[in-house]
Amino acid sequence: MSVDSGDGAGASRFSGSGITKRFGALAVLESVDFSMGMDEAVGIVGPNGAGKTTLLATLSGAYQPSAGAVTFGGHDVTRLPAAARCRLGLVRTHQVPKPFSGMTTFENVYVAAAHGDVRSRDEAYERAIDALNLCGMLAVANRQAETLGLLDRKRLELARALATGPKVILLDEIGGGLTDSEAQELVQTIQELRRRGIGIVWIEHIVHVLLQVVERLICMDAGRIIADGEPQAVMSDPEVVRAYLGGSTQ
Amino acid sequence: MSLVVSPSMVQRWTRLSRRAAAAVVIVLLGLAVLPGVLGAGAIDRLAALFVYVIMAAMWNALAGYGGLVSVGQQMFFGLGAYFTVRLAETGLDPFVAMGMASLLVAVVSYPLSLVMLRLKGGEFAIGMWVVSALTHLMVNLDGLIQGETGRSLISLNAYAPGARRDIIYWLALVAMTGLLGGLFALLRNRTGASIQAIRDNEEAAGSLGIDVTRTKRLIFVLAAFGIGVAGALWLASATTFQPKTYFSVQWTAYMIFMVLVGGIGRFEGAILGAVIFFLIETWFGALGVWYLIGLGVVALLFSLFMPLGLWGAIETRFGVSLMPVGYRLEIPPQSRKD
Ligand SMILES: Nc1ncnc2c1ncn2[C@@H]1O[C@H](COP(=O)(O)OP(=O)(O)O)[C@@H](O)[C@H]1O
Ligand SMILES: [Mg+2]
């Protein structure tokens, strides 16, 4: 795993090394090492409370790690706030959606596009419309975000993140509670992101959906990475099986 | 579904809002020539209305768009007046002093923003009140003001009363037009969308690349400046500066009243609220305590039965927007190719 693809400086990699995160006395992440190519697609699974969301939050800059470093495309971003990381091309979605409730769906996505690397307002418009279209949200573009249901709020998280023009996108359980056909639409959307060369880290419980997109799977338990590699191998790893039988799988 | 994407799908002005803009220009031009038509009393009252509009728009910008609810905005009103008195004392022309005092309020508000914007929600609201009370006390210590004795803007006497009244009226009109025009432009550009995003969810705004601190600072300083202008204008028509009348929380209460009744977070709402407040004051202001009780009751009724304010209700009911700062997406059917 995580073999550097030749360019020594790691300019084409996104890595966290020795990431530790404590909340008071509670250690939620314990010296996690994570590394991926900028255009790779990696899935993360693990029982609830394993620290998946905390890892994403720390990598994206919402949390400062208690120890460890984060590098992104050759930059050391450990001390950069989330906004600065986003401008470098690293963006996340939130497991519990955080819409801008007083604005319309379109405005939610436009404000994200406008802070990306666009050169003009028209380009931001185009990017916002494209993101809404890709996420199947054109029909609700003019609705106030506070009137959206959970499903659309999750789509909005994805559309907004996409509109920033990311190099790597971190997805946190955007597929929970979907019907089979909705899940297929989501898979198609994520596959389109891959075609565009966007790197993906995707936390999801529904493994068969995840496996349609990712070529590499990481399993976390109790603040550590317990398996990392080819998805089938990871799922049959004895430690992974034990973690799932021991913890709550849903 | 594939789609031919074009920026022209995003609509901002509508036919109605273009007409409203034309109407605004005509009204402003009409207002500009009124000093030759109306009597002294009416001109004074209208100048007061312009000051109310400025105050309502600024509090709306801060709280309605920025989510920064403050009950200490009287601090900037008081400082605008105080700095004017102070600067005029150095021999500066009183009207020049007003302009410089307003800028000084903006300058002072910047370091203050660094401290106050660390506070959230209720802490910020009350913190602003506390700082306002402290500022009031510090102004009391100035030997020129001598506690609550106060000081007059004596240098205004260099102008004949009629000319003075007209100049103040025009200054208030120009200040209102400039401040509201500037605010409208700001809210319509990218920064305006960021301000509202931060209001709705600060963490999400940051995670999408918005510079939260810088944006909040901008709106804080802008609101301070605008209210400083209002304080300077109020002093010019009242001529005497007495700290407790300017640093009174009643000014912020008026701002809140105007914005709640007119419609918080709506550009038209603050203007409408200022006009309503002005009319209520004109008709019932002489009733003293009962007038204040009446204001309180009206505000209460609005927050209970019309939480979006008058303009919010009109906007929801009829779907109209005269001064739109938002965005609408209209996809023409021919651009969809399935
Ligand atoms: N802000 C926080 N403060 C304290 N504890 C937290 C915080 N965020 C997460 N935790 C704890 O860290 C653990 C891991 O949480 P999380 O990263 O959300 O797990 P997962 O996403 O894998 O379900 C949980 O026990 C949770 O209670
Ligand atoms: Mg989680």
From TrEMBL, chain A:
<keyword id="KW-0547">Nucleotide-binding</keyword>
<protein>
    <submittedName>
        <fullName>ABC transporter ATP-binding protein</fullName>
    </submittedName>
</protein>
<dbReference type="GO" id="GO:0016887">
    <property type="term" value="F:ATP hydrolysis activity"/>
</dbReference>
<dbReference type="GO" id="GO:0015808">
    <property type="term" value="P:L-alanine transport"/>
</dbReference>
<dbReference type="GO" id="GO:0005524">
    <property type="term" value="F:ATP binding"/>
</dbReference>
<keyword id="KW-0067">ATP-binding</keyword>
<dbReference type="InterPro" id="IPR027417">
    <property type="entry name" value="P-loop_NTPase"/>
</dbReference>
<dbReference type="Pfam" id="PF00005">
    <property type="entry name" value="ABC_tran"/>
</dbReference>
<dbReference type="InterPro" id="IPR032823">
    <property type="entry name" value="BCA_ABC_TP_C"/>
</dbReference>
<dbReference type="GO" id="GO:0005304">
    <property type="term" value="F:L-valine transmembrane transporter activity"/>
</dbReference>
<dbReference type="GO" id="GO:0005886">
    <property type="term" value="C:plasma membrane"/>
</dbReference>
<dbReference type="GO" id="GO:1903806">
    <property type="term" value="P:L-isoleucine import across plasma membrane"/>
</dbReference>
<keyword id="KW-0813">Transport</keyword>
<dbReference type="GO" id="GO:0015192">
    <property type="term" value="F:L-phenylalanine transmembrane transporter activity"/>
</dbReference>
<dbReference type="GO" id="GO:0042941">
    <property type="term" value="P:D-alanine transmembrane transport"/>
</dbReference>
<dbReference type="GO" id="GO:1903805">
    <property type="term" value="P:L-valine import across plasma membrane"/>
</dbReference>
<feature type="domain" description="ABC transporter">
    <location>
        <begin position="14"/>
        <end position="247"/>
    </location>
</feature>
<dbReference type="InterPro" id="IPR051120">
    <property type="entry name" value="ABC_AA/LPS_Transport"/>
</dbReference>
<dbReference type="GO" id="GO:0015188">
    <property type="term" value="F:L-isoleucine transmembrane transporter activity"/>
</dbReference>
<dbReference type="InterPro" id="IPR003439">
    <property type="entry name" value="ABC_transporter-like_ATP-bd"/>
</dbReference>
<dbReference type="Pfam" id="PF12399">
    <property type="entry name" value="BCA_ABC_TP_C"/>
</dbReference>
<dbReference type="InterPro" id="IPR003593">
    <property type="entry name" value="AAA+_ATPase"/>
</dbReference>
TrEMBL record, chain B:
<protein>
    <submittedName>
        <fullName>Branched-chain amino acid ABC transporter permease</fullName>
    </submittedName>
</protein>
<feature type="transmembrane region" description="Helical">
    <location>
        <begin position="95"/>
        <end position="117"/>
    </location>
</feature>
<dbReference type="InterPro" id="IPR001851">
    <property type="entry name" value="ABC_transp_permease"/>
</dbReference>
<keyword id="KW-1133">Transmembrane helix</keyword>
<dbReference type="GO" id="GO:0005886">
    <property type="term" value="C:plasma membrane"/>
</dbReference>
<keyword id="KW-1003">Cell membrane</keyword>
<feature type="transmembrane region" description="Helical">
    <location>
        <begin position="256"/>
        <end position="280"/>
    </location>
</feature>
<feature type="transmembrane region" description="Helical">
    <location>
        <begin position="20"/>
        <end position="42"/>
    </location>
</feature>
<dbReference type="Pfam" id="PF02653">
    <property type="entry name" value="BPD_transp_2"/>
</dbReference>
<keyword id="KW-0812">Transmembrane</keyword>
<feature type="transmembrane region" description="Helical">
    <location>
        <begin position="289"/>
        <end position="314"/>
    </location>
</feature>
<keyword id="KW-0472">Membrane</keyword>
<feature type="transmembrane region" description="Helical">
    <location>
        <begin position="167"/>
        <end position="187"/>
    </location>
</feature>
<feature type="transmembrane region" description="Helical">
    <location>
        <begin position="124"/>
        <end position="147"/>
    </location>
</feature>
<feature type="transmembrane region" description="Helical">
    <location>
        <begin position="218"/>
        <end position="236"/>
    </location>
</feature>
<dbReference type="InterPro" id="IPR043428">
    <property type="entry name" value="LivM-like"/>
</dbReference>
<feature type="transmembrane region" description="Helical">
    <location>
        <begin position="49"/>
        <end position="75"/>
    </location>
</feature>
<dbReference type="GO" id="GO:0015658">
    <property type="term" value="F:branched-chain amino acid transmembrane transporter activity"/>
</dbReference>
